[in-house]
Amino acid sequence: MTFSKLCLISAAASMLVMSAPAIAQDSSFPMREAPRPETTNGVPHVQIDMQAIPELSEEMLRQVAEFPGVVLGATRVSLPGAVGFQLAGDISIAQPQAIVGGREFAHLHPDGSLHASLHPDTARAAIDAGWAVAHPWADQRAGWEGFVMIYTPINEAELDMVIQLVRGSYTYITGELLPET
């Protein structure tokens, strides 16, 4: 193989790697089968008629704790009892305007729902497919257009979809793809 072919292949690979986080945001989601939960229209923004399934919440926390540079702890921006998904100081933030507070890119509420900052296109797709609702403040500040409440998962298939959305939040905020699990 010639040097020029190697350079061309290397350049193409670099372009793919650099565009990977954007590609990861091009998601279409299956329609959520369960009815949309009722939510409050203000803050605190919570579900009214859903409760967490503890095993599913525990599994979500277990998986999110494995994301590189994520530290679980008390939320900095939500209700008491919510678990914040904080980015460690050595993790770069590609979308600082989309973070609501500190280095917290999402948090899990005691009712099993969670707030997350998604790419605005991903947020719209998740809302349209019945997985999420826009946060009441999503239109209050530039960068918050993708701030959503993701509904409480009610079974393992829904948990998988919710984890996919949380992975998308991590990718959007950090600009880094997570390894496939």
- In the CATH scheme, the class would be Alpha Beta
**Which band does the percent of strand residues land in?**
5-15%
Regarding quaternary structure, how should these chains be classified?
single chain
Structural class: alpha+beta
CATH topology: Aspartate Aminotransferase, domain 1
Q: Share of helix among residues?
A: 25-40%
CA(first)-CA(last) distance: 34 Å
> In what order do the strands lie side by side in the largest sheet?
1-2-3-4-6-5
Output the number of helix runs.
4
The CATH architecture is Alpha-Beta Complex
The major beta sheet can be summarized as: 6 strands, antiparallel
Number of folding domains?
1
What overall geometry do the principal axes of the alpha carbons give? globular
Elements, N to C (H/E) = HHEEEEHEEH
Tell me what you see in this structure.
The protein is α+β, with helices and mostly antiparallel strands. The chain has a single domain, classed as Aspartate Aminotransferase, domain 1 (Alpha-Beta Complex), CATH 3.90.1150. It has helices spanning 3-24, 54-65, 120-128, 156-174, and strands at residues 70-74, 83-87, 104-108, 114-117, 132-134, 147-150. The protein has a 6-stranded antiparallel sheet with strand order 1-2-3-4-6-5, covered by helices on one side. A hairpin with an 8-residue loop joins strand 1 and strand 2. The protein starts with a helix and ends in a 7-residue tail after the last helix. The model is unreliable at 1-26 (pLDDT under 50).
